[in-house]
Amino acid sequence: MTFTLVITYLNTKELNQIPFLLFYYFLSWVCLLMGIYTIENVNQKRTIDLELQRAEKLNVISQLAASVAHEVRNPMTSVRGFLQLLKEDEVITVTQNNYITIAIDELDHAQAIINDYLSLAKPHNEEKTLLNLSNEVKKAIELMTSFSTIFDIDIKSELEENLCIQGNRGEVKQVLINIIKNGIESMDMGGLLYVKLYKAADFVFIEIKDTGKGMTESQLKKIGTPFYTTKEKGTGIGMTITYQLIQSMRGSIRVESKLGKGTTFTITFPIKN
Questions:
Q1: Do 257 and 212 contact (CB within 8 A), yes or no?
Q2: How far apart are CA 139 and CA 173, in angstroms?
Q3: Rounded to the nearest 5 degrees, what angle is found at the Cα of 182, between the Cα atoms of 176 and 183?
Q4: Which candidate, 145, 166, 146, 147, places its Cα nearest to that of 156?
């Protein structure tokens, strides 16, 4: 607009209008840039506030887990031991044996939940080493193949070789299994899980895409927050731990989903030569 008006004033010999025109549009651009700068600052502050709220929630849960989980787990271990001894007794009836089996299974389920809380409370400061991510993704896929077969789900993969990061083998395994398992469980019976590993610039990307139920916008915003889950028997802790582990390895995670069309998790790690 400025260029067009300047040309117009030059053609019509109205040169006295040009200084005012330039000053007006210069001032307009300055105001526009100030407005953009202010909006970006507000958005950044909002993002930081949300991160602080999330960190406070995790801190409260960590303290709660550390103080309660150990106290609960010890008597549960004793109870399970006595039930196991009763199960081996030849005097009990078949019905009683079934009841004991159910009780042991429920104790194991409770134990798994407690272990999740302990994992959440435990500081992730294990030593990071040079890790071949390509091999770890292959192992995770092989490990979950038998589980996916139960649900009649195919796992397809496209993996670049010899991509390395600085990380912890156990943490990477836990992250991959958590996300792959969630993807399989979201598809009920039948479907396709696609895993892609590739390099771009100085980063390694892992894409895990399912053809499951997908999520709404409101559900998508809550992913990774404590106690939130879309599964009937979930605790909402698994994805929170996954987010923590990724951040501890200086990585990031992005989730894209459409209701009825599936979900894509994209994990990013700095590459290590």
A1: no
A2: 8
A3: 90
A4: 145
